[in-house]
Design a protein that fits this description.
Helix content: 10-25%
Shape: globular
Radius of gyration: 16 Å
């Protein structure tokens, strides 16, 4: 997986099972490892993942983990956001929309999912399930939770669970469409 930030020239890349790297514009390559998050964690959401529609739920989730209510970004999530060169937050929360399918598509997540995992972070849906790719329906049905490590991820999943229906949507949104 490769993610390029054209403005800075920075590249993040990984091969499953072999770690992640950052390639800087000067040609240097350094290991990319997501560092542990501070306490309290810094959380964000995005308008592209329902952040504006779920402000009160996000405020409750933040309170449970001792964080400030998250700002809602105008952009989606990129793995470079967890890089210490520009790290501004420790977790990205995209709650699943009431309609069941977000505007996000699996191709929006596949690269960052692998880079985050290989760099030591966590990336799941809001029920803690790994995202599935190459589905019949390419939409994302379970929301997004990306975090800087297993402890923060577990705490956020517990806090998020209070805001979700008990039954998660199918990993492939096509399975939830009535015949």
């Amino acid at each position: 997986a490769v993610s390029v930030h054209p403005v800075s020239g920075c590249v993040h890349a990984t091969v499953r099972g072999h770690g992640a790297w950052r390639y800087d514009p000067d040609g240097s390559r350094v290991p990319f490892s997501i560092q542990r998050s501070p306490t309290p964690p810094r959380l964000v959401s995005s308008k592209w993942y329902g952040g504006r529609d779920s402000g009160t739920a996000l405020a409750r989730i933040s309170a449970v983990v001792g964080a400030s209510p998250p700002p809602v970004l105008e952009v989606g999530f990129q793995a470079r956001a967890f890089d210490d060169t520009e790290r501004a937050y420790d977790a990205f929360i995209g709650l699943p929309p009431p309609s069941g399918i977000s505007i996000a598509q699996e191709w929006d997540l596949a690269t960052v999912d692998l880079i985050v995992h290989e760099a030591g972070g966590r990336f799941t849906d809001c029920w803690g399930r790994a995202h599935r790719y190459n589905k019949r329906n390419t939409g994302i049905s379970g929301g997004i939770l990306a975090s800087a490590g297993p402890e923060l991820h577990a705490a956020l999943l517990e806090a998020i669970a209070r805001e979700l229906p008990e039954e998660p949507p199918a990993p492939d949104p096509a399975d939830d469409i009535p015949d």
